[in-house]
Each structure stands twice: as structure tokens, then as C-alpha cells.
Design brief:
By secondary structure, the chain is an alpha/beta fold. It has helices at residues 24-35, 55-65, 80-90, 110-117, 135-153, 169-172, 185-189, 218-234, 238-265, 269-302; strands spanning 11-17, 42-49, 69-74, 95-98, 123-127, 165-168, 196-200, 315-317. Strands 7-5-6-4-1-2-3-8 form an eight-stranded mixed beta sheet, sandwiched between helices. Helix 5 packs parallel to helix 8. 36% of the residues are buried.
């Protein structure tokens, strides 16, 4: 058994699982085979996202035999993002690695991600270049979504949805994760100035259990992309960004006011009332945007935008 450096591991591996009873033991052995030769102290943090099968029972047995295995259990299903956020927060290693619990990610790729991280990067993303998923329901929507995410966020990652990623703890612990933001970690990491790289990794077909995702999530991804763009684009200087958006409104308001003045001069009272109302609405919208910018600045300077500072309250930690 490896001794932990200074009582703490240097590497933490986060594995969210939900109803994966058939995959738990094979994945555990694959992770050990991938990490033992590294010569680093490590821990494996499983996050049981409200499983209803024997997943937690099997994890308990592994934990009793191997103290490097930590288990966090949600009392109900909160989703992969919440599970990953809890794992990131609980992890003690200086380097954190995440992966799926369905055996489609290959733990043998862990050394390659760590080697890339040691080149000076803060986040290293796995790229499933040859995916073993269904073409129409998984691969085609993934290509479109990744292209869209890259164009909007300006973070050109080929495979945002791959859970196999390596991070410096100092970076990932400062990235706010909520809703279904786990697939946007590269873009969200740019807020804290992370250097991002990508490594081609292997991908295996699922042999046990059922996939938790399908084509029905496309609309949610589109909405999340818009949300991420707002966060990454406005987070640094919200007053400037909202102020920039208010300029066209103010210009249109001044133009409408000039037109209204001309109509009043020519005694076109009905038209004057209409244009005066239009001018007022544009001025109101511009003032509203400026106020949003001021509120955003106050929130960034004095508030705390992180959704939580502790492990989710409805959990059991082994």
C-alpha cells in the first residue's frame, strides 16, 4: 500500500457513478493498474449519484479493503455536474483527474494526461477521436455541439463532453459548477486564466448498464452554451459589457427624441406621442442595461458567485 505524501495523496481521481454495479469492480482494478506504476500516492473518490442498485454496497466493500478509496453518496440523483463538483471539493490531491464510471474511458490513458499537465498546462482534456457510440444519437450531435461550443466560447476543444480530464486542484476548485456545466469546464476554466490542452484518448463501447444521456439533451446544451457565453464574456468587466450593449439603445432613444421634436414642431401630436413613447422605452432599456452592469460589478467585487462552499448537504461520506 502506498504511503500518502504528508498524509495526503498527490493525485485524486474523481469517478461519478449512477447505477453502475456491473462496472464498479472492473473499473477499480483498471484504475489501480493505470495508477500503481506512476509511483505517486493517490486516492479514488467515487461519487454515488443516488444509485438504486448495488453500486453503493459494492463501493462500501472496496472502501473497507482499500483506504485509498473514498465514497461520497448522494441520497438522490442530482446529476453528473453536482457529483463532479462534490468530488472536486472533497479531493485532497494537488492534481485532480475525472472520468466516467461506465468503463468507456480508459484509465490506461491517465499517464498521458498527467504528462501533458506537467508541460505547464492547468487543464488537459481527453479527446475521444474514435468514439464507440451510436452514430446518429451520440456522435453526430456531439460533433455539432462541440463545434457550436467552440465558436461561441472561443475555446476550440474537440470533445467537451469527454469526462476524462486532468486539472490542477488550484484551478478546478475555483471553477463554479452548477446545472449541467460539467461539459463546459474548459470554457469555465478560462475565467481563472487556465491554460488548456487536449490529448487523444481511447474510447470503449459500453458493455454493462445503460447510457444516461441521449439526443433529448440537445436543447439543454444549447441553453447552457448561451449561459456559459454570458458568464465567460461578462464575468471580467460586466459594467463595460452591459454599458457597451446600452449604447445602441441610447442612440436610438436620442434619434427617436429628435424625430418627436420635429413632429411636435409641425403639430403632429399623435405621431409625437408615439415617438416620445418610443424614445422613453429606448432610454429606459439603456438605463436598465447600465444598472445591470453596476449590479454585476458590485456582485463580482463584494459577492460570492460560487453556488456552494461545502459538500452537498444530502450526502454520506465514507
Amino acid at each position: 500500500m502506498d504511503k500518502r505524501w504528508d498524509g495526503r495523496p498527490t493525485l485524486s481521481i474523481i469517478v461519478p457513478v449512477h447505477d453502475e454495479e456491473e462496472n464498479i469492480l472492473p473499473l477499480y482494478h483498471k484504475i489501480r493498474n493505470g495508477c500503481d506504476p506512476l509511483g505517486r500516492s493517490y486516492e479514488i473518490v467515487y461519487v454515488d449519484d443516488g444509485s438504486r442498485d448495488r453500486t453503493f454496497e459494492i463501493l462500501e466493500g472496496i472502501h473497507e479493503q482499500d483506504p485509498r478509496v473514498q465514497v461520497i453518496r448522494f441520497r438522490k440523483n442530482y446529476g453528473q455536474t453536482a457529483a463532479m463538483a462534490a468530488g472536486f471539493q472533497y479531493a485532497q490531491g494537488k492534481i485532480i483527474l475525472s472520468m466516467d464510471g461506465d468503463l468507456q474511458n480508459d484509465p490506461a490513458d491517465i499517464p498521458r494526461l498527467l504528462a501533458k499537465l506537467e508541460e505547464g498546462y492547468d487543464v488537459v482534456c481527453g479527446w475521444r477521436k474514435e468514439r464507440k457510440d451510436h452514430l446518429l444519437s451520440r456522435r453526430v450531435p456531439s460533433v455539432i455541439a462541440n463545434w457550436l461550443i467552440g465558436k461561441i466560447t472561443r475555446v476550440p476543444i474537440h470533445d467537451n463532453g469527454c469526462s476524462l480530464k486532468a486539472y490542477r486542484a488550484s484551478v478546478i476548485k475555483n471553477v463554479a459548477l452548477y446545472s449541467e456545466m460539467h461539459r463546459f469546464i474548459p470554457a469555465m476554466s478560462t475565467i481563472v486564466g487556465a491554460r488548456i490542452a487536449e490529448v487523444v484518448v481511447r474510447h470503449h463501447p459500453r458493455h454493462f448498464g445503460k447510457s444516461k444521456y441521449g439526443i433529448g439533451r440537445v436543447w439543454r446544451v444549447v441553453l447552457d452554451v448561451m449561459n456559459v457565453k454570458m458568464i465567460t464574456g461578462f464575468a471580467a468587466r460586466p459594467a463595460l459589457c452591459f454599458g457597451f450593449l446600452s449604447v445602441p439603445c441610447i442612440i436610438l432613444g436620442l434619434s427617436a427624441l429628435c424625430v418627436a421634436g420635429g413632429m411636435y414642431y409641425h403639430h403632429l401630436l399623435r405621431a409625437w406621442m408615439v415617438m416620445s413613447t418610443v424614445a422613453f422605452l429606448f432610454f429606459f432599456l439603456g438605463a436598465h442595461l447600465l444598472t445591470m452592469g453596476v449590479i454585476g460589478e458590485l456582485s463580482m467585487k463584494t459577492g460570492d458567485y460560487r453556488p456552494t462552499k461545502s459538500v452537498h448537504p444530502t450526502v454520506t461520506v465514507l
